[in-house]
Amino acid sequence: MKITTPSGNTITDGTHNAIVNLTKLPVVNITSLFGNDGYLNLDEANLGQTISGTVTNLTNGTLRVTLGGVSHDVAVINGTWSLGLTAAELKGWRWQPDAERDNHR
Length: 105
Known about the structure:
The chain is α+β, with helices and mostly antiparallel strands.
């Protein structure tokens, strides 16, 4: 068994086993996404956007959100989180015409 503390200290014990029972894993919810319709249009991308939500079973911590291949570490404070995306970030995403997008659903 190997245990690593948040500060990076490591303890190794080869004689004991540990059973970890995770019963309340965090659940991430998105409450605001691109004008609340779930689709990002060019007008919205030009303004930049904020994606936000809640997390159950995690009051304070860090959430990793990956969009367009870019990861963002976002603080969870009192069970809520918010990620601001600039217009430049949004415009860097690959855009598909609606007909092509609809064929891939």
